[in-house]
Specification:
The chain is an alpha/beta fold. It is built from 7 helices and 5 strands; from the N terminus they run βαβββααβαααα.
């Protein structure tokens, strides 16, 4: 595995999401240059709502994007990550630095069973939240996860964004 020479984020998607994104190419030979690492993604269905769920490799930070933005993923993904980082209190300069490193997006298959397990846990939590609170916006669902104690122990990599490189 080689590291990217240009600024890039790698989205490692489930087979279901790769088909939805029409990404049939070979595995990228690069790793993300972002502080939060590669992002793992899946398509989840909650009734008639379909969303893209991504989690950060290093922090397990969840990001949800409406499936209608799938064609604009190159712009909507950095926006959604920026909103979640703002929600957890990361300084604006660090968010802008992270977003600038997401200028290019590469797609690949998932590689970590541990991260797939976390992705499945978040999917189940999203479905359960949807059952109990159907009208909540996606941002509210993800913000609810951030308040959970189990997520608090994963905040180290997010706080590291605030530090200089």
């Amino acid at each position: 595995m080689r590291y990217a020479f240009e600024l890039m984020v790698v989205l490692r998607c489930t087979q279901q999401l790769l088909l939805r994104l029409r990404q049939f190419g070979d595995e990228p030979g690069v790793r993300s240059t972002t502080r939060l690492g590669d992002w793992y993604g899946n398509l989840i269905r909650m009734g008639n709502r379909h969303v893209l769920l991504f989690i950060s490799e290093r922090s397990r930070l969840p990001v949800m994007i409406p499936v209608r933005h799938v064609n604009r993923l190159r712009s909507s993904f950095p926006d959604a990550v920026g909103q979640m980082l703002t929600a957890v209190g990361v300084p604006a300069e660090a968010i802008e630095r992270e977003r600038s490193e997401m200028s290019e997006i590469a797609f690949g298959r998932t590689q970590s069973r541990s991260l797939l397990g976390s992705l499945n846990d978040f999917s189940l939590m999203a479905r359960m939240h949807f059952v109990t609170s159907r009208n909540d916006p996606l941002e509210h669902i993800a913000a609810t996860w951030l308040r959970r104690r189990s997520f608090c122990r994963l905040m180290g990599p997010i706080r590291a964004l605030s530090r200089e490189r």
